[in-house]
Amino acid sequence: MSNNHIKRRLPPLGALTAFESSARHQSFSRAAQELHLTHGAISRAVAQIETRLGVDLFVRRNRRVYLTAAGQRLKKTATETLDALSLTVEEIHRHDSGSPFLTISCEPSLAMRWLMPRLGEFRTLCPELNVDLRMAGGPIDLLSENCDIAIRRMDFGVNDDYQITTLCSELAGPVCTTAYWNDHIAQDLSNANWLHSRTRPNAWDDWKAAYGLERITPKSEQHFDHFFYSLQAAQDRLGIAIGSVPLVSDDLKTQRLIAPLGLQPTGYDYAVLTLEDPSQDPRVSAFCRWLMESIDQMNE
């Protein structure tokens, strides 16, 4: 028999909310404060459920209340259910095209060295949107992670149902400060301390292979957990790192870093991943349009 026509014999949602708050606080008074109701309203709501169920949910003693076994059982289910309802409502609100929230997942190094310094500009252009920026790299399930947009270096496969909007091609090469280049390297990379990233362990090998310099070895080497750490170390004159545009575009423009041997395409692009065409959601469309304009300004 189908369950579609089964009548659910549930207490009113408001009464369950009053019970759950009372059970969580072990107090009708604190539940009343939390829900902006009177103590009497909470007491009546709980009594309504007890009458419906035919069991006591609380033991009332010396102006205090204690959950019975039935109350503990109902509290567990009520809390889980209300939490799930709250989360679903928030997700619907956040990801509706009219929502004031825009959730973005971005490569950590790109976020820290390129996107975050520019987000204030986007906030000025679209003050009605609140950007929830989450730092993550690699493959992503936009639905399960509740993200509207992912900005990624496209060095992995993507589901066919994703929309891919290319931002720019990546360029890479050795970067360091002018002082480090003049004082330590003197046109010979083997004199340098090479800075490595464990998140891009093959960066130096890929660059050497592209230039036919497989046999060159450094004077010393240093390893960091993340790409942005190795770039910061280069900026702090600890050595020379493989840097990439757009991550070091601002540093090159202000000459905090230089690329003395030039930058070459890596064969990878940075792109925006969405579930639908960005034009279908005005929030996503506004952000993507701003991203493209920012990329164009970077290349000027």
TrEMBL record:
Cited InterPro entries: LysR-type_TF_proteobact-type, LysR_HTH_N, LysR_subst-bd, WH-like_DNA-bd_sf, WH_DNA-bd_sf
Entry-linked Pfam families: HTH_1, LysR_substrate
Keyword Disulfide bond in annotation: no
Occurrences of domain HTH lysR-type (ranges): 11-68
Keywords: DNA-binding, Transcription, Transcription regulation
Protein's UniProt keywords contain DNA-binding: yes
Family from the record: Belongs to the LysR transcriptional regulatory family.
PANTHER family listed in its UniProt record: HTH-TYPE TRANSCRIPTIONAL REGULATOR, HTH-TYPE TRANSCRIPTIONAL REGULATOR TRPI
Protein name: LysR substrate-binding domain-containing protein
